[in-house]
Structure prediction request, 290 residues.
Amino acid sequence: MNRPAMKPPARLSTPDPSVILRRACSCLILLLAAGIGMASAQSDQAQKPAEESQEWHVELLLFAHPDSDIAWHAVAEIGDFSKLTVQPTMFAQAGDPGRMAASLNLTEDQLFASEPMHKAWLRLQKDYQLLGYYQWQQPAGIGRRWRIHDDQLLIAASQAVSSELDDEATASAQQPAGSDELTYQLDGSIKINTGYIGTVDLNIEQRSEVLYFRSTSNTPSAADASNEHPEQPQYRARYLQQQRRIQSERMEYFDSSGLAALVLISQVVASEDPAASEQADTELTANQSE
Prediction:
């Protein structure tokens, strides 16, 4: 049986020097491109803190669940937030935004910093008790704790039977014993660390009428006019106390058995005309003061 003849192995040829040079140049170009890419990435990382140093806009919408009477608690003391201050740039509004906008010579949508919050207000007002909408600006990074409260003052149940109170009686009803601070129906604090990933720390209380415990009974009841010095005041209160991380540019939901909140933080886009933006802010502040 005849086998086919095998071909001799091909002789290795010497590489062309021009080919080696071209390959070396290609590798050098790739290395240079990689170096440029790394420098660009480092430049982007260096620019990121500068971006995060810009101002951030914070929006907070507080509301109460319907039929949440079980969330009320009788307490002997309520939180004291009098040592905190309200954020200087904070704008707050409650009730009918249409009436408030008209009083400020604005349109209703101008009261809200973002369209999603405006839509949330319109959607929630049908079934929920809206407690307030707050917005302000703060720099990126760790924020300080600010006070949040409404303009509704807490009146003792024993004095709420009269629809018209003189100034002295009203002041005594609004202040807890030994305090010069007004007691609001909605009060609390918020601390927000802004950035692409931020954190929110909420501590909100809603208080209703003041009840009293008598020395002869463990049942809370309204103090009548003959009892000028009830033994211990009792408040009805419900709470929203939560702390967690949030993502910017996204609506975040906080919830408890009685109260809830929507929070939205977004980066402030630099205006093309800073003078016009400053003038608009001045007009809004002037309208609020009027």
